[in-house]
Amino acid sequence: MFGAGSGTAEVEAARRDPVLRLTRLIDPVKDAIPGNAPTDPTSGWATPINEAFASHYSESSPLAILRAADRAETFEAIVQPFDESLDDAYVELMGLNSLKQNDRLDAISWYGSYLMRLYAVAHGISAFRREVSVLLDAAYFAPNIPKALSKSLRTLIRPQRQPGGGTDESLLPLFDSRAEPILGWAKSRKLAILMPSLEMKTMPVAADQTVVLLERQGKELGRIALDFALVREALACVDDHAGVTNLVDATSPRLERIRAVHLRSDVLSDTQLRIAEGRESKIVTLITQKGK
């Protein structure tokens, strides 16, 4: 179903198959988040599988442990005789004293992935279900941004220089080649602007596309497409710390364009200038003399 089979010919065949090319993208093993809430799209679900393999390998059946842990019997309904035979073979293999350690670990890894996919399919879980759920909510509740996304999106666009430091300071260097905020320690003295807080709202622009509008005092400053890559990057933010995923190359240029709006001449005149050095920043006051 997911074109699995690392190191085998099945992987190459899956890459050529028009159906498996799509389904392998949502392989649950790619996004197995720890947790015990298989029915909650915002929570993890993979802990039962880890616990099924936590017991000594020669004394227990991972399949039996999963069955006992699934009170709703959703998993039980999908188990077939083939799965039971496979589990018996696994338990027998783990009981062999002659089995080499590398082969033992390979078998645990393979069967763990197999049961993880079986458990996920039984509960209707795909990879990245949290991101997909947030995307759907963002379109449905527009112009309001879902609570699970709002704070994370602000952190991604306007990261605090010192999260947890008691201030909401976000500084953008004025003369750097890239519009990347100053985070933590500034190695050299830099002239920067204090990025103001922005109002955000969503707006559907097509049946399958939503954009985030960034406003300040009722004036639109810019907009950015709310797609899978941006949502995944935003949800990787934790406690005001900006997160990074494998999709950072797809989001960084767009985020820089949004931040660069604050460097436009019509916006810059209403922005506070600061000099950042070390962990400190000082307000720059411009004084104009009469007649000059």
Task: Annotate the secondary structure layout.
Layout lengths: L8 H8 L3 H4 L23 H6 L9 H8 L11 H14 L6 H22 L6 H12 L6 H11 L13 E3 L12 E9 L4 E8 L2 E8 L2 E8 L1 H8 L12 H13 L4 H4 L4 E6 L1 E4 L9
Antiparallel strand pairs: 1-2, 2-6, 3-4, 4-5, 6-7
Helix pairs in contact: 7-9, 8-9
Would you write up a description of this structure?
With 292 residues, the protein is an alpha+beta fold. The protein has two domains: 9-127, no CATH class; 132-283, no CATH class. Helix content is 38%, strand content 16%. It is built from eleven helices and seven strands. The protein has a four-stranded antiparallel β-sheet, with no helix packed on it. A three-stranded antiparallel β-sheet has the order 3-4-5. A hairpin with a 2-residue loop joins strand 4 (209-216) and strand 5 (219-226). Helix 7 (129-140) packs across helix 9 and helix 8 (147-157) packs across helix 9. The longest helix is centred in the middle third of the chain and has 22 residues, at 101-122. The radius of gyration is 25 Å and the shape is elongated. The relative contact order is 0.10.
List its salient traits.
alpha+beta; 292 residues; 38% helix; 16% strand; four-stranded antiparallel sheet; 11 helices; three-stranded antiparallel sheet
Summarize the structure.
It contains eleven helices and seven strands.
Largest sheet: 4 strands, antiparallel
Topology as H/E string? HHHHHHHHEEEEEHHHEE
Shape: elongated
Span between termini: 74 Å
Mean pLDDT: 87
Query: How many DSSP helices?
Result: 11
Radius of gyration: 25 Å
What percentage of residues falls in helices of 4 or more residues?
25-40%
Portion in strands: 15-25%
The number of domains is 2
Number of strands: 7
Q: Helices and strands: which structural class?
A: alpha+beta
